[in-house]
Amino acid sequence: MRFMVIVKATEDSEKGAMPSQDMLEAMGAYNEELVKAGVMLDGDGLRPSSYGARVRFDDEGNASVIDGPFAETKELVSGYWVFEVSSKEEAVEWARRAPFRGGELEIRPFSVPEDFGEAFTPELQEKENELRDTLTAQREA
Amino acid sequence: MSTPPAPTASATADLHRVVDAVWRMESARIVGALTRVTGDVGQAEELAQDALVAALEQWPESGVPAKPGAWLMAIAKHRAIDSFRRSQNLQRKTVELGRELVQQEGVEEDWAAALDEVVEDDVLRLVFISCHPVLSREARVAMTLRLVGGLATDEIARAFLVPEKTLAQRIVRAKRTLTAARVPFEMPTGADFGARLSSVLEVLYLVFNEGYAATAGEDLTRPALCQEAMRLGRILAGLVPEESEVHGLLALMELQASRLAARIGPDGESVLLADQDRSRWDRVLVNHGLAALDRARETAAGALGPYALQAGIAACHARARSVEETDWAGIAGHYEALAALNPSPVIELNRAVAVSRAYGPAAGLELVDRLLDVPALSSYHLLPAVRGDLLVSLGRDDEARAEFERAAGLTRNERERALLLGRAADCGGPAGLPTD
């Protein structure tokens, strides 16, 4: 089972404050432990929301763009891991070992096509798959 | 004294899953440390199991400790020292030599200190002892999943479709065999290292294949076994990062597993590589597998080993957007290199398929026909299946149908049989009758 472990932003991460040497070392050790245990498939950090933007849609589908930063710090994301584990409990146990002081992690399973039920028609799936293919091809190119 | 409220049934079940998760994460290190100190993997595993039982008893009331691994290790350590004292007391009654007792008291302190020590090689030694050549292949698989993977006996039994009792006995016998043979808990060295590592890789690939190509039962795959084999492969790659073939095997497993979802059709039938919806291949695993293959190539001392070569073949498929765009000549070349390392009619058969894709069905059929008299392939269903395929491409439908039917009669997998009979039916009616 695949899970995303979402790192919520903090005031420090939103300020763009660089982590201390100790924190970097602890995080490096934690990541190494995850890799050596064979559970970490991916992971990365994000810059503060001041570097980002939002695209908001109204009910008619009109898009408006809002530049960062955004106020509700605790709802923002500052990084993520992707874990492959055998249960939610195992994902939680690994997440508990992260060397954070303050902050919050959110653990969410990846959805699988079955979750969408009948609304996700084979045609739609096909379209999405084509899109994903193109994206991958671009990444590999 | 008031008793705390009994946990609800569902809270207990949740807690049980937490304990299972912690056990998967911690047990190899615990069993490894205990084996290093007691010198007996069977005893070590029993002591570790005692700690697991204690967790199941105490955590529902106390909650999961902040450092569950250290908690389990502390309990196991106490049990180890208790059992040491018991055997020492027994000896005190029978042995009169004071000098020997003094020595043993020293041993007890050593044990306590040794169990507090973290030794990086413990898990690797545990891998090697679980895959020791003194054990049968089946026993190596069971011991590896149990001791290194931290899987419960009933889990392993279910995965391999054998009765739990059979599997439990297999593990008990394996532990006895290791004790009787006085197999030391150590790293193999010199020329022995390569052979012992091969045995480990073989066990992991057996586990993977049991999941990937289920040889018995109605399910075509059991993905949990594949995932377990990949997890163990990643752990091993972390333990011996300088070994090219470990990365090669990991790459092979990840690249093959990336196709798991696409291999099964909507009705549970198997879908051949050529017919798979490639957009359903798992890109995260593909990227992981390609990175592992790069590491296999970087660490290879000379020519690539058999796992890295097979991973190279899987990578040619993973990189191709369609069957037509596949580097078939490259695949044929990898098979040739494989056959040079390890001549085998099965590899020749695969090479024939690649050659037919690269250079046309007639070239492939020529290679396949050379294999018709090989005794080792006389009951191998893929020989007639491949031959049938090539004959269809050459428009020889009657011969093709007979081959597909023969293949269907040889396979043990029910779904595969259905697939082959379907291909036979596609070739039209029996010989001599109009087929349109």
UniProtKB/TrEMBL annotation, chain A:
Residues 124-141 have a biased composition (Basic and acidic residues). Residues 1-108 form the YCII-related domain. It comes from the Bacteria. InterPro entries: Dimeric_a/b-barrel, YCII. Residues 120-141 are annotated as: Disordered. Belongs to the YciI family. PANTHER family: BLL7163 PROTEIN (PTHR35174:SF4), BLL7171 PROTEIN-RELATED (PTHR35174). This is Uncharacterized conserved protein.
TrEMBL record, chain B:
GO terms for molecular function: DNA binding; sigma factor activity. Residues 196-296 form the DUF6596 domain. GO terms for biological process: DNA-templated transcription initiation; response to stress. Residues 129-178 form the RNA polymerase sigma factor 70 region 4 type domain. Signal peptide: none annotated. Residues 28-88 form the RNA polymerase sigma-70 region domain. Keywords: DNA-binding, Sigma factor, Transcription, Transcription regulation. Belongs to the sigma-70 factor family. ECF subfamily. This is RNA polymerase sigma factor.
